[in-house]
Design a protein that fits this description.
The complex is a heterodimer of chains A (317) and B (325). In chain A, 47% of the residues lie in helices and 10% in strands. With 317 residues, chain A is α/β, with parallel strands linked by helices. Chain A has one domain: Rossmann fold. Chain A has a 5-stranded parallel β-sheet, sandwiched between helices. In chain A, strands 4-5 form a two-stranded antiparallel sheet. In chain A, helix 1 runs antiparallel to helix 11. The radius of gyration of chain A is 19 Å and the shape is globular. In chain B, the strands form 3 sheets. In chain B, strands 3-2-4-5-7-6-12 form a 7-stranded mixed β-sheet, sandwiched between helices. The model of chain B has no long low-confidence stretch (mean pLDDT 97). Chain B is built from 11 helices and 14 strands. Chain B is globular. In chain B, helix 2 links the parallel strand 2 and strand 3. In chain B, 55% of the residues are buried. Chain B folds into 2 domains: 182 residues, Thiamin diphosphate (ThDP)-binding fold, Pyr/PP domains (Rossmann fold, 3-Layer(aba) Sandwich); 129 residues, 3-Layer(aba) Sandwich (Rossmann fold). Chain B has 325 residues and is of the alpha/beta class. Classes of the chains: A alpha/beta (317), B alpha/beta (325). Chains A and B meet through helix 5 and helix 6 of A and helix 3 and helix 4 of B.
Chain lengths: 317, 325
Amino acid sequence: MKKELIKRMYETAFTIRRFEQTAIEQYRIGKIYGYLHPYMGEEAIAVGTITALQPDDFIVSTHRGHGHAIAKGHDVSRMMAELFGKQTGFCRGRGGSMHVANMEQYNLGANGIVGGGIPIAAGAGMAIKQKKTSQIVLGFFSDGAVNNGVFHESLNLAAIYNLPVIFIIENNQYAAATPYETVNLEKDLSMHAKGYGIPGITMNGNDAVKIYEAMQAPIKRARAGDGPTLIECKTYRHMGHHVNDPGLYMPQDVMEAWKKQDPVDILASYLKDSGVSEEEIQAVQTHVEELMEAAVKFADESPTPSVEEFLAEIPAY
Amino acid sequence: MSKIKYREALNAALREEMERDPLVFILGEGIGEKGGSYKVTDQLIQKFGAERVIDTPISEASFVGLAGGAAIAGTRPVVEILFVDFALLIMDQVCNQVAKFQFMTGGQANVPFVLRTQGGVGNGLAGQHSQSLEALFYHIPGLQVVMPATPYDAKGLLKASIRSDSPVIFIEHKQLYMTEGEVPEEEFEVPIGKADIKRPGKDVTLVTYSFMVGESLKAAAELEKEDIDVEVIDLRTLTPMDMDAIFSSVKKTGRLVVVHEAIQRGGIGGDIVANVVSDAFYDLEAPVKRIAGKNTIIPFNVSLEKECIPSVDEIVEGVRQVYFS
């Protein structure tokens, strides 16, 4: 794999990591409120899958969606502004952390309902089929969503209509606080693909480079009009379900083992192996730190949405 | 002008909009070769092919959500749910996703989504195939709710709905499909959000919609014999609601009756009455009245079933009460 590509993936993963840490800091001092579901520990999935896309391919995200948005190239200042509830945010403060969307970059939105985005992903695939373009869709969701009816229905719809959709299960092993093995007897969730007559792949969700490579065949299949693929990426959250969940139900030894397989560190070691110097890595990190500082400043100084504008926009229906 | 059936008017609207705009496609259970349970999509698959007239598995939540996603991603789907009763399976996708997307994204995207379905009492279809559930959708911000009563309105409103950039819940009535009415052959649209005076009158304002429009007109004809002149307003659209049409009629008559088939509790009628009482109280010369479905599950037995929804006689009696009070 080309050095530049690995470097880009590392920078994206590091940006996601630092964005989440920064958002948590801002939450703690009261600049961000409501729900915030950090993506820390799962960065490799967004980076490995979305880096393999074309800019006009769609993504459908989840409540834990900052990583997908950043991997899709969203401006982190406008992301942060949305988390702050500011007018300059992608959704003008109407959506917040759980509803970041950016149509210009083909992000059809995060979603506050677990599994709620899966039919939407199939629908974007249907729109592509109707318009006969060569785009594809990545639909992200969690192990928790796999137990929802719309997962099974939508997989079937995408399969029977040959839709250009790749369904990505981010198996972080907890449906909020419920361990996935207590609510799924089948441990490899990609096995569900078999029931719908499509390919299923289970892989390590912490190695972005391997994920990127594994995406090539499903992407080719989707673009060729040969139909959907189900991919399960096994990973682990680095904290509880949301910013105010200490995750005490997560065994420390398991957490430590997963943290030794930190997706950002794994990318850093690929970088080193490809001959990138410590200084270059340092330069990437410095750049990201500047981005974070600028994002917080931008969000902080941005105007709050106008109440008058909001009231004037309320439709008659 | 020619006389066509309600279902033929809907069929013509779909056909014409699909001819006009290649981004319009339709999906639902048994809408292809079968042409739909009520023949609304008859012959469309022959004309437009299976790519644009899509038969779905019985997966209501997901194929409606799929339509929502397709709307967000730039097409204009018309999705059919066989019975409004089955719409209870799709509420997350309609109320949390489709209805909210435009707002929650700060207005970044249009959602040109039309859900066609049908409701109301038929003839012994029992508790899960006979309901009138419009109030559920009426309650959710972000949805336009359209309920045409005549072939003319059905065609014109379905065209307007397909051309709308915001979600529409389009509820037909199973007892109206075979009714006939004049529909022009040339192009026309009926605007969403405009009520229609189906019968002008000076004594009592009767506000209604869907199947009850016809029943109310029959009642008005009876009352005419007693020199009670009823103005029948067909709302046609529940959201946005044309309150101006109601206010100006009440200003003229001083009397208000609301008639609907849906159960009274939590129904549209209560909201209309509350709006009139709070905003036009001094135009009223008599207590207002709601004539609505009984608060019951619809029974199978047809003689019990007909007790559930307002009859022409009940409407006549209700209007008399308001007129003489």
